[in-house]
Amino acid sequence: MLDNKKIFTDKKFVVGIATLCCLLWGSAYPAIKSGYILFNIASGDVASKIVFAGYRFILAGIIVLIIAQAYGNNAFVMSRKSIFSLFILGVLQTTLQYIFFYIGLANTTGVKGSIMNATGTFFSVILAHYIYKNDKLNLKKIIGCTIGFIGVMIVNFTSDLLNFSFKFSGEGFVIIAALFFSVAAIYGKRLTKSIDVMVVTGYSLFIGGIFLTLPGIAAGGRVYHFTFSSTLLLIYMALLSSAAFSLWTLLLKYNKVGAISIFNFLIPIFGAILSSVFLGENILEIKNIIALVLVCLGIWLVNKEFSEDKRI
User: Fold this and answer.
1) DSSP code of 160?
2) If 0-12 CB within 10 Å is exposed, 13-18 middle and 19+ buried, where does residue 141 land?
């Protein structure tokens, strides 16, 4: 039987898996935008965007739970206490996070959205300070957070770096989504002490997806136009969610929050590059380059101490 603790604390393995997770999440930015086009979802049709998100996560949750059951976990028999805890996680990690994320991304560019979402790293560092005794804030972390936030703000300036541009329903919603992601990650880490990681991930995605779909449909949202291309995209988005969330939860279970958060800097990089490639957005503006450098520098400073540990 595989020793998950040994595997998921091996430095090289952690680096590879964390990088893969961030690549998958980064690919979600252009995929969501492309999904709106393929499913003929209008830019102002918020309800249909919520239903679209719900379908993605319901499918992702089902995939994870089936895999968990196949590997011998009794995924479909849960105590009332466990169901309630998983309900809370699902609402936090999937419903609330992605209501804000999908709406926010619809009101900003993939490049800006990917960088704004990097604020989740800083939220994780701050929350870890108050929750874990061995993950406290220090001067290095404070300086790193400050530099990172400066980078996040710079991306919201126009090309001449003089006129500030920030839309609460766009960039603001993406930041709120990042906060929910950080809170849910820490809460999920606690749940994995008593519930299998795959079960935790599957239910959080499935329950959260249900509570995205129902209010979206009630508000008049619909997702039609299922073609080969649009269906394939939806399946890909479900698979990326099931894989990334499962692996990330395993990494958090066996490692410090701050140590894993360092890899979040890859999400805006992958998101910006893939948005540039697939959506034709301009990544080469000086403001985007400066922002990416500062965000990466800030996160590196926040987590520098962990790079010298024998175990990440």
Assistant:
1) T
2) buried
